[in-house]
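Complex 243.
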Amino acid sequence: MAGTGALLLLFVLGHLIGNLQVFGPPELINHYAHFLQSKPLMVWGARLGLLVIVVLHVTTAIQLSATNKAARPVGYAGGEAYGAGWQSRYMLMTGLVIAAFIAYHLAHFTARIPAINGVGDFTKMKTVLDGQTVPDVYAMVVLGFQVWWVAGFYVIAQALLFVHLSHGIASAFQSFGLRDHVWWPRIKCAALAVSAALFIGYVSIPAAIYMRIIGSEYGEKAKAELRAATLLNAAPAQGKETK
Ligand code: HEM
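Predicted structure with protoporphyrin IX containing FE bound:
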């Protein structure tokens, strides 16, 4: 669990650094996304690796939870798990909600399924970079987080990720055998700081977009283009119907 958790933490850190480019000019994140999309072997290798890591993390989590229950078939008197922080008791629950968030997130920004974004068909949003027509990831993220319930869901998911990581990071050090009475308070403090930094970093994106601090002008233009593209593609089908 600790090993796969550490690898997932590395992904979450790297993904945040990539995403923070949304605070730069639109071309910055679009160039980055285009670079990744132009390396299918690398992207699919990483996806497969991530999938294996996630499956192992979830499987070991369920096994650990079952072992914990078997070790104490009769609950603590009073119903409290003495010595365990509330975060540790909610690891399975927060983990499952994070898994549900990832499923939504993949449908939202990777598969770009129009029915679940509250906006329209993100696959139609294109821009031109160095003479090449490429997906407009900046416009997709901006329009995506201008929808209140999408931005709200992302913020709630990041709060649960914060709870999950603040316990998980410290717990991983214990699993690796690196806990002692001198280092434990420091490890707990560092885990809290890293999780809080990730929370602030991730939440800053939907928050800045929803509050129209970034992207509002670009978003209006993209919305108009999306409307035009939708009407244009719908036209031949309508023509057929009226025949
Ligand atoms: C504000 C927060 C976030 C933003 C703006 C964001 C943005 C994106 C975008 C734009 C993509 C699609 C990349 C592409 O196909 O071009 C993506 C993919 C992905 N994101 Fe996020 N993300 C956020 C939070 C997260 C979090 C918290 C996690 C994990 C806990 C996560 C995990 C993933 C995964 C696994 C993929 C799929 C990578 C792939 O296979 O292409 N994201 N994200």
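Residues 237-243 have pLDDT under 50 and may be disordered.
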